[in-house]
């Protein structure tokens, strides 16, 4: 990658500068759980994340512009516009799960949204809610309410991000439901371009950034099976690991089971075979 300068590493992605206007994002096959990158990789995971993001970027431009400029032939690298990223995670929840469920149990509210009494885990909310979070350099992102988020981004930008995130969630959740998948919640990242416009960046509606459940396995009051890395989390939990670095190695059956779940999500959501994507990544943009 001689034409690019490495400028950063995330848990999954490597970030390179191509020039003053463009970045190159390369999605690795690394997997993290409980904020620790595990020593075992999941083959093709990075390609699933890149392909699904490209698929959604191509289908949501009428809602909001995004950072994608080109999808490279390796299926894991994307050329993107440079943005000034908002300092908040933009989370939309349609169902009560994860940290939202924990907050509700403790306070009866999620990020300032007071919810009715008596809700159970994984229950569908009366309508989707926007629940911002801080971006933590280390450890977990912290859920915050509207007032705290407005302090970080300003009221007008917050309102724009909220409306845009909710519109994207509605569009993608309807698409997923038609394919037998529930989009329980999702995390989006927005930036601002040089003209001041809001732009969708990072990744979009992948098993790493979203909680996808098979509709036929859903039941309120339980934890549904999922297409994300819950399979890995469950294995790590069974070991009694203290959730500090270094994480445990993953056995072959967990690696294969996780890879199969990611690819299943890709194929069901896009209607494309994963092999077709590997042969021609641009197929997701059509």
Describe the overall structure:
The structure is a single chain. Helix content is 32%, strand content 26%. The protein has helices at 45-59, 98-107, 146-153, 155-178, 230-238, 252-270, 274-279, and strands at residues 5-9, 13-17, 22-27, 32-33, 36-37, 68-71, 77-81, 84-85, 88-95, 109-110, 113-114, 124-130, 133-134, 181-192, 198-201, 210-214. Strands 8, 9, 12, 13, 14, 15 and 16 form a seven-stranded antiparallel beta sheet that branches. Strands 1-2-3-7-6 form a five-stranded antiparallel beta sheet. Helix 1 packs parallel to helix 6. It is globular. 39% of the residues are buried.
Q: Which descriptors would you attach to this protein?
A:
single chain; 286 residues; alpha+beta; 7-stranded antiparallel sheet; 5-stranded antiparallel sheet; 7 helices; 16 strands; globular
- Determine the number of helices (DSSP H or I, runs of at least 4 residues): 7
Low-confidence stretches: none
Q: Would you report the number of β strands? A: 16
Helix fraction bin = 25-40%
Broad shape: globular
Helix-strand string: EEEEEHEEEEHEEEEHHEEEHHH
Task: Please report which band the strand proportion falls in: under 5%, 5-15%, 15-25%, 25-35%, 35-45% or over 45%.
Answer: 25-35%
